Amino acid sequence: MRTVCTLIIGYQALGPGSLAIAANRDEDPSRPSDPPMTLRLDPRVVGGRDRLAGGTWLAIRERRAVIAMLNRRPTIRQAPPSDRSKPTSPAAPPPPLRSRGLLTLDVASAGEAAASSSSGPFADPLASAALASAFGALRSARYAPFSLAFVAPEACWVLDHEEGREDRVQGVDPGWHVLTHQDLDDSSEPRAARLLRELRDWKPVSLDDVERGLEARLGEHTAPDPTDPSRLEPPVCIHEGRMVTVSCSVVCWTPHETRYRHVEGRPCERPFEDRSGLLYQPSRAVGG
Questions:
Q1: Would you give the end-to-end CA distance of the chain in angstroms?
Q2: How many Å apart are CA 51 and CA 33, to the nearest integer?
Q3: What pLDDT score was predicted for residue 78?
Q4: C-alpha–C-alpha distance, residues 89 and 80, integer Å
Q5: Which long-range contacts (CB under 8 A, 24 or more apart) does 84-89 make?
Q6: Which Pfam families match (predicted)?
Q7: Does residue 266 contact residue 248 with C-beta atoms inside 8 Å?
Q8: Nearest alpha carbon to residue 220 among 260, 192, 182, 187
Q9: pLDDT surpassing 70 at residue 4
Q10: Tens digit of pLDDT for each residue in 186-219?
């Protein structure tokens, strides 16, 4: 499963106890998926569903945390083919790669008992339990390179994984951040650089301001670079190529209100729909 390709994180950007997430999913449009639904009931997990593997790219856990999976550009080159003139004993093929979307669902479903008893690196026990769940999954299966973001009102971290390199966990400071297929807030990645510049001095004063601003940024197209008009900035909303923007989500909440908006398709072509009811309504989980 290809995964969310642009993620904007607003960790406590509206003050303590707040969060904001905006995500574009860029994917082969022929790959089947379902719009947001209830994926698990206990704990309650909501998100879109990849029909091929059954996982998700963006999961919301009980109005307590958002977990997002992003494809990560590999940094390790594969070894060249061996010299076939030399006799070698056949090697067993490596185990197949597990879907990263299933890992997202594992992390979003970290058990409540584990969350209450975990003594991990974060003050929020759910953040520590979720990270422990991610490392447990990495010990039991192989995965293609990824970045996994956990965002809650009291904790935020990003886990980078690539076989052959040490896994890296980064705690995230309050403020606005951008993650694409490279490192968090990597200004060498043009799309991240564009969004980081736009977010640097942005100070929304309400959830309405947050929603409008994030939805507009998810729909941005190619535009002249304001620092160099001879250059073009890359689009955030992608229309061309094998992987295009197929859906978008905006999740934001304060201690008093939670909102979840989503569009199946591109945000420049279709309006966002309110999916907040999924976070409150009891309903049967998929496959349940």
A1: 23
A2: 5
A3: 58
A4: 18
A5: none
A6: TANGO2
A7: yes
A8: 192
A9: no
A10: 999 999 999 999 999 999 999 999 999 999 999 9
- CA 254 to CA 256: how far, in whole Å? 5
Residue type, 221: H
pTM: 0.90
Which two three-digit tokens encode residue 5? 């390709």
Q: Which tokens is 210 given?
A: 């947050």
Domains of the chain and any CATH numbers: 4-74+96-279 (3.60.60.10)
DSSP assignment of the chain equals ---EEEEEEEETTTSTT-EEEEEEEEE-TTS-EEEEEEEEETTEEEEEEETTT---SEEEETTTEEEEEEE----SPPPPPP-TTS--PPPPPPPPBPPHHHHHHHHHT--HHHHHH---SSSSHHHHHHHHHHHHHHHHSB--SEEEEEEETTEEEEEEE-TTS--EEEE--SEEEEESSSSTT-TTSHHHHHHHHHHTT----SHHHHHHHHHHHHT---EEETTEEEEEEPPSS--SSSSEEEEEEEEEEETTEEEEEEEES-TTTS--EE-GGGGTS--PPTT-
